[in-house]
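Complex record, two chains
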Amino acid sequence: MEYSAIGIDLGGTNLKGTIIAKSGEGRHLTRIPTEAEKGGAQVMQNILQLIERLIEKEGSTDNILGVGIGTPGFVSEDGTVDGAENLPGWKGTRLYDPIMEKFNLKAVGANDATVAALAEARFGAGRGVRNMILLTLGTGIGGGIVMDHKLFTGTFGMAGELGHIIVETNGLQCNCGLKGCVERYSSATGHVTLAKQFCAETPADQQTPFTKFVTEDPDNVSSRTIYQFVEQNDPVALKVHETASDMLGRLVGIICNTFSPDRIILGGGVAKSGKIITDTVGKYAAQNCWPMIWEKCDLVIAELSEDAGVLGAGAMVFDAFEV
Amino acid sequence: MEYSAIGIDLGGTNLKGTIIAKSGEGRHLTRIPTEAEKGGAQVMQNILQLIERLIEKEGSTDNILGVGIGTPGFVSEDGTVDGAENLPGWKGTRLYDPIMEKFNLKAVGANDATVAALAEARFGAGRGVRNMILLTLGTGIGGGIVMDHKLFTGTFGMAGELGHIIVETNGLQCNCGLKGCVERYSSATGHVTLAKQFCAETPADQQTPFTKFVTEDPDNVSSRTIYQFVEQNDPVALKVHETASDMLGRLVGIICNTFSPDRIILGGGVAKSGKIITDTVGKYAAQNCWPMIWEKCDLVIAELSEDAGVLGAGAMVFDAFEV
């Protein structure tokens, strides 16, 4: 029998769900509000409601192998959420038991960045690649590790906290308490921080179109607007790009010396700027690891975007429960 | 039938070989000179001779599952040695073919630090541990990664180059071309470098027993002698200890955020100083990764010493060829 899986992607604003075949083809894509502000118990109710809607659209659970869930934070082996400080009351939620009770379906969960890595490995820029790492460059930096074609999440589901690897001695203070974490520089948020810092440091007689834009409209500075000025060779925007790429290159170097992966994939909003990112990050990465390891590693842009979460969540189900 | 394996440990001076049971019990331990100075072809001849002697002692190859070899450098999937710059003519050697031709035995090889990690996982401080990393603190720093109870060597056998992870921005120049590699500070060689540097920087009126020892007998400074002065609370020796531990703690923090391992094991000559090393490195590691990941990770001293190489080499054979 051709089984399918339910994939759920838990975001701060929306819950997304789909039913996917092993090939990655999805059907019945459905979105409902997460209602994170109502607390963890309501979020779990909403997840159950989303699963119910998907099953209604499918007609039955006969061909459903199980439910996969990508969530902020970590998921322990027994399905308990840890971390996820941004979702009030979500930590401590037991993910698997209510799904088994209500639908008689097995469930498997993992950190959302980890789940996205599995999606790229199965259906995206990592297809057929044995050892790969996905770095999701968004508000923060998330990491997902696929080794020997399988997701590696560590014993407690906490592996891949690559955004909080320190790349600069006594660097910028991070929310996590450490200093010099790569996500302070190379995430979308990091780009904005660097842009404001470098603009503030630019002398009055060296202002550029970019510094004027940042000064006049600081709330509209984003990684995307920064790269519009990078394309115009604005020197201050270029400095943001070089600094952020240097720091990310250091992380890529550390990843190379650690895993010697076949491929490192950059995803998330920042990666939408494309080749200029991989080219410059690659230049710095080569200065931060063994040349013979770097030679064997590709650095590429992710292929999946918004759908990575639900696809990866579904793919986890096949890995976990297919016999 | 109870199979055994041949384990070979290739060192710069000696070749060691043994026959081991799956339980880790060894027999017929044999040492012959490596004769590295005679070139790679002679080293390979010596390995074949060592295997022959072990088979003679055993009486036959009937119960021998295969041959495992730990070597400096890397071993690709087809058994070709790469790296290993310190052994002239060894790079490019094909390890597996001559063993199959001469003895009709399968062979499997890996980097020596990697092999030692498997030995700790099976027979030493990592017994029963699902995810663990061994850091071998010797002349340099080698890394070995055991995940889900299996050795992880990467697609090209090059994973685990943890000694060349950069832990200090614009730090000390390393032989590898990078700056600030952890092995420049926290290996036995790194300890000696720091000792000489800190002694040279100590003003004349602040000399200590340790600075006098280093000045009078610089050739006899070693990690071991440094820790003799650390035990006497010599302030300059303590500064070496704190600096080396800080740098190693940064690496341990990076390893934690990456793998969230159950256990990190410190081996090699430096680790013989024991608890003072794990205590101080642990203090710094806690400042370099997520607290909830660090809480779940043990930092301990290796249990096997000189025998780790042959035992791990033999253990690889069971993992690779046992059906």
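Note: The first strand of chain B starts at residue 4 and ends at 10.
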